Amino acid sequence: MKLKYVLSAMAVLVFMMLAGCQGEAEKSSGTKSKEEGTATIQFWHSLGGKNGEFMDQLIQRFNDSQDEVKVVGTFQGTYDETSTKLQQSISAKTGPDVTMLERAYVQQFAESEVLEDMTPYLKESGLKKGDFTKGLMGHSTFNDKLVSLPLNRSTPILHVNKTMLDEKGLKVPTTWDELNEVANALVVKEGDKVTRYGLTMPYDTWYPIAMISQSKGTYFNKDKTSVGFAKNDVGVKVFQYLKDMQKTGALYYPPAQDSGNIVNQMFAAGKVGLMFQSTGTIGDISQNTDFEYVTAFLPKNKIHATPTGGGNVAMLAGSENKEAAWKFIDFMMEDPKGLQQFIVETGYLPFTEKMVDSKEIQDLWTKEPNKKTAYDQLKYAVDNNKSVAWPETMHEFFSAIEAIMYDDEEIEPTLDQFKGEVERILSES
Amino acid sequence: MKKHNVWLSVDFLLKAAILFAFIFPFLWMISTSLQTFQETLSVPPTLIPSSPQWINFVEAMTSGPFATYAKNSIIITLSIIIIQFLVMIPAAYAFAKYEFFGKNVLFALVLIAFMMPGQVTFIPIYLMMADWGLIKTLIPQILPFMSNAFGIFLLRQYFMQIPEEIIEAARLDNASEFKIMWKIMTPMAKPALATIALFSFVSHWNDYFWPLVMTDSNEVRPLTLGIAMLKQSEGISNWHIIMAGNVVLVIPILIVYLLCSKQIVKAFVYSGIK
Prior knowledge:
Chain A: Residues 1-21 form the signal peptide. Chain A: Pfam families: SBP_bac_8. Chain A: Keywords: Signal, Transport. Chain A: This is ABC transporter substrate-binding protein. By secondary structure, chain A is an alpha/beta fold. Chain A has helices spanning 2-29, 49-65, 79-91, 106-111, 119-124, 162-167, 176-186, 206-214, 234-248, 259-268, 282-287, 322-334, 336-346, 353-357, 359-367, 369-377, 390-405, 411-428, and strands at residues 39-45, 69-75, 98-102, 141-142, 145-146, 149-154, 156-161, 188-190, 193-200, 218-220, 227-228, 251-252, 272-278, 293-296, 309-315. In chain A, the strands form four sheets. In chain A, strands 7, 8, 9, 12, 13 and 14 form a six-stranded mixed sheet that branches. In chain A, strands 2-1-3-15-6 form a five-stranded mixed sheet. In chain A, strands 4-5 form a two-stranded antiparallel ribbon. The longest helix of chain A has 28 residues, at 2-29. Chain A starts with a helix and ends with a helix. Chain B has a domain at 64-229: Orthogonal Bundle (MetI-like fold), CATH 1.10.3720. In chain B, 74% of the residues lie in helices and 0% in strands. Chain B contains 14 helices and no strands. The chains are: A alpha/beta, B mainly alpha. The interface between A and B is large, with 57 and 46 residues.
């Protein structure tokens, strides 16, 4: 008999819990509608850690600055996870009003026509496309529609342990040949074991694409029917260059998992002298190194070139509060307390003339010239992996990089096979 | 006698080595959670922090609405376990001891559910939950786990081993089926129940994928997502803070494990059969 009571008590408890959840639902389901004339805007982003805290502060500054619009910012996982969540929530009509989108995913969403054209809003606020840094607007327009604006943008850059180079009397490399020499000269071995490497870079498609562009190749060809680095063996030469350096210990290619953190920590600990890595890490590195730390343009091969990265901001076509959503975006773009302050705090790139000319950014650059290098490099920015099919081919490119860098597969057949996959994917899309 | 001693020490060393291999990551996690940021970056790695930084725990727990996350984690995990037990015990009892039409087909369906990963079903379930307006509640994280196919399977095997005579004897004493199930079968299956409870607790407490895809707002998120948010999106991660968060996440698992392991041993020793 006693058991029966216990059981019914348990059942009651469960129902109470479920009812409790239901109660919370009612409380929070009001957020989308207007409450006392205040519109609530849902904003999704992928910023964790300190950058996430700076983003929360930006949202707080906006909410404090006026009382018509209230923004609720929510972290939705990594860039990839955010994009997956957007896909499912847009079809379920539970999507946000404003979202951060990794720039390479913009095309995919724009093609499905779920991103609002912001041209009229831009005009309304007295802004024009020309106000934005050209190198960072590569992913902003799709079929003449303005579907996204820059948010937290970065580029890869060369990070240099100047103290280590000076000890050997070496100069900061500006070309591939110099890079090869310097990286090899920095190697320290104990017996057969390398204890100090010359160059490193995270496991990512970004760096091979940068090097392909520097060799006058492109990721996709002009017609978007195949890869653009098969001609003159550009791709083979890029990977041969990396493989040759890897063999002598001049290049440390990190394990795939958490590679960004691994290379940052090796660089900060003086285990490697040169690093290709995002501009987004400059702040952290300069705070945690006791050697002379400088940044420089990525070395050129035939030409200088750099891809861009990071996130853009987009307004969703399904939003019911577009005017309010734009108000928030406009604040981020134009108010000195918007993204300008966020950029000073985090080290991402400024992207409007107004930001660049502002006292805050100019002061920052005088104090930390390393951050100016990244902005100056933008004149060489080029993105040649823009396509709806990019995310799909990216996975194939990762497989090719793994095969070559980790498994010592022959470069040419691996890239040929990759080319075949890209052509198949492009013909299907 | 001497030979015996040699084997004993080899045995001891092997066990110690295996124990160390399992425990070391935990010790490292605890050590990192008490280090300063500089210590987490040092090469060779710091093993014992120079002065324990308890402040890391404060920093981890104040970086977001951790009280809400913890409350959600507890409600979700406990609700799942309670509901699972209410569904699982009668189902397993019926599959083990009753003959009815379509029994084998139904049991095959249970096994198929057992083999279906969440990655296959999450989009339809999300759309369904959104349609019902439940995305801002905890229900999408509880309802899909109401029944536990692995649990039904394990418990059915366990019930099948219990001799029919015990049930017959109870029926002769005029015990209702309900009473037989809860007062005779269930206590005898304690080891299986403790095992299932432990597995269920660990998998739902630690789950990252399902809450990530089922929730859009912080009010309904569990601890795992809060801790993922501690990780720096670009730059050098604050491992000391992340590990402090992980220590907090792991402690309840250790407690439940200690409770269950005792229960399993006890049940094996005292249960009437085998």
